Amino acid sequence: MPGTGDACVVIGCGLGMISEIDKMLPPGSVTVVEEADLIESGGLRERAARWPCVAAVVEGPAQRQEAAEPPPLAALADAAAVIPSTEYGVVATAVYARAAGLPGAGVAAALALRDKARLREVAGAAGIAQPDWARVADPAAVRAFAARHGGHCVLKPADRQGSLGVRLLGPGDDVDAAWRATAAADDGAARSAGWTPGGLLAEQRLLGPEVSVEALVAEGEVIWSNVTDKALWPGPFPVEAGHTLPSALPPEVCDRVVAATRALIAAVGYGTGALHSEWILVGGTEPHLVECAGRLPGGAIVPLIDQAYGGSLVADLVRVLRGERPDRAARAGCGAAIRFGAAEPGVVRAVHGTQEAAAVEGVFAAVVTAKEGSVAGPVTSGFDRTVHILATGADGPQAAAAAEKAAALVRIETVPADA
């Protein structure tokens, strides 16, 4: 049974998550479990200590991808909740929660959500609409798969995040080069050195608007949900260029994609926590599964939700994992949006317009991470975005217009790296 106190165990030292948890939990109530090499390389003990809620950052298996029982962890004895703070900690969170007898995703569900091939198998067996797909072991297998789909396909890793390594392929593209790039795609700063990467998938390329569903789930029941519209970067790398919520799609289409999410929850046997599922609406109305994460969304969707709906999504996730049923607004009170940008490849010489962007009506955050002297590369994943403009408005489209207006004011000067 869930504990009744404030003690919580956070799996993975996600500093953004911890900063939000600190707003609701008392000093010394949180134990963070992280892989030893990441604690060392990231200076995570020192960085996490800035938040009073953190009692300790301890070494432990935070990125395990198997269902074996965890080693003893004293903090579990008094914990009221076990909380995932990173994508790579989803399975470990479920394992620790099971060991403590606390609510969680469930180990089988977590394993499916961390392996895109396994998720495809589970969704297919449940009759959930999704693209044709195959595990691929080499470029020849990719070519054979694409040939069955008019020369087009999507090549992606089975277990990365932030669109890392995802590539759209068409007739005439260099499949060998794409294979090498996708296989080598790495976010090593977020991964433990002891983590074993999975394989690659080829998927049918579907056309239609892209949306995501953010949901809080308690014992398999969706108790709150939101639908977010997505904009994508043009070109072969389907990186998200913006999010707008709540969705401007007709209510019946939003209802359909939320129903598809409920079917997915049932298919994987998901228990309690947060889900972020992504869908392509074929023909503009029919949801087909892209993928699903067993955690809160990234891409600044959480602060957008907090602005639009009020309250704190992180705080309510903690409450759900403590066995509570938080009372969240079912409808957004306003719209919220983010638009991303990036520098042209090269060495950054100067950044202009950040203050002007921040002054645009409706903008509540304008962040540019490109710094003078840094080297900008092409945008191939979410990690390459350096401009982040967040805005609110009377509805989603108005918020998106404000974010786009502000983003257009930001200018990053670069020169060729070999100049």
TrEMBL record:
Species, as recorded: Streptantibioticus silvisoli
Name this protein carries in UniProt: ATP-grasp domain-containing protein
SUPFAM superfamilies, A to Z: Glutathione synthetase ATP-binding domain-like
Superkingdom field: Bacteria
Pfam families recorded: ATP-grasp_4, LAL_C2
Span of domain ATP-grasp: 120-322
InterPro entries listed in its UniProt record: ATP-dep_AA_Ligase, ATP-grasp, LAL_C2
Keywords: ATP-binding, Ligase, Nucleotide-binding
Residues in coiled coil: none
Gene3D superfamilies: ATP-grasp fold, B domain (3.30.470.20)
KW Nucleotide-binding (keyword) present: yes
